[in-house]
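Side project, low priority. Logging it here so it doesn't get lost.
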Amino acid sequence: MLTEKNVMTKMETKQLNPVVLAFVGDAVYSLYVRERMVKSGGGKASDFQRAASKLVSAQGQSVFLDRLLPLLTEEEAEVFRRGKNAKKATKSKNATSLQYNRSTGFEAVLGFLYLAGETERITQLLSVADDEEFKAVEKKLEDLLGTKVKISSGAKKGKIEIEYYGNEDLERLLDLISRR
């Protein structure tokens, strides 16, 4: 893993082929997704594998990139462009060329940041997915329950707050939840 002795300078990292950066970035993103899933709670390895495959696929990354690209620094955006435009030896089996090229750019950025020792920046960028994911889950719960829902997350646990308006509304919510 990354130690201070293994960190490359940004100049050294920029000189690497963007496909090589993407090779490292693919592992970084895959580990991030897998770690997040395992820490989120129970499940079987096969369930985790199926879910992780969807998230780390070129299609899954392409959706996430729409939210991430505006947050990239100029330097990161340049690495993304280099990765996206790089000539690749392989083609994606399950994604369009555009999705595959964008995911290669995204992975190149993660590889660049990782090799340069910028792990806090990786966490900052990838936390955008968590924020968006929580908002989407809040919206689904609000639609399902017909009331305001707030999800907050800590390092190891989270909290779901469900608003209700009187005893009758509380009974309605309990009925909805118990039917599931």
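Brief comment: The chain is about 70% helix and 5% strand.
Revisit when time allows.
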